[in-house]
Amino acid sequence: MHNPLDYSFNEIKIGLEHYFEVSIDEKLEKDFAKISGDFNPLHMDEQYAKETKFGKRVCHGMLLASFFSRLVGMYLPGKNALYFSQNLNFTGPCFIGDTVIVKGKITGKSEATKMIKIETTIRNNAGELLVDGIAQVLVR
Amino acid sequence: MSKKLYEIISRVMKIDISSISDELGPKTIENWTSFNGYVLLNELETGFNVKFTIDEVIDVKNIADIKRHLTNKGINLDA
What we know:
- By secondary structure, chain A is an alpha+beta fold.
- In chain A, about 25% of the residues lie in helices and about 35% in strands.
- By secondary structure, chain B is mainly α.
- Chain B is built from four helices and no strands.
- The chains are: A alpha+beta, B mainly alpha.
């Protein structure tokens, strides 16, 4: 999907949700390391990661968080989005080969600023919460 | 009334101070766009040295709500 949804402020209702799935593969992980410059061995070195409590390479937390950009810019609200703030809690590891579900739910609307509050979550296919946070987005 | 509050609203929304009342808000002030709403929020935070939470911002439907939140933060609007 390359055409963003196009919600206006008035069309957005409390409780509105959107979600999508992403498969975390080797290419995504490598591409994110290049873009961010984060080549920490926990993410990149299988041997090193084996000796940690995780037992294998852990996906960059900020790679997961970057999918909130897609959530906001393409779905909630889509075209009219201006990202304002996002807080993040990393609550569980994600591994290469996992499929994650990125979800947003509208929990507040400000008439005064045309700002919306979005509860953002990422879960793995077992339903475990990996990342959550609150986004504030201006609807232009 | 709060002179300082009304001066800020008047300046940001480009309306006459005498026309400001508690009932006015984003639906009744023509210049209250999303951008001006955000500018107003910033001007209020700077002018009164307070910070609004997202839930307080969401709660604002009119000038009376702004006054209530400022008062709750210890601002004396009659001063």
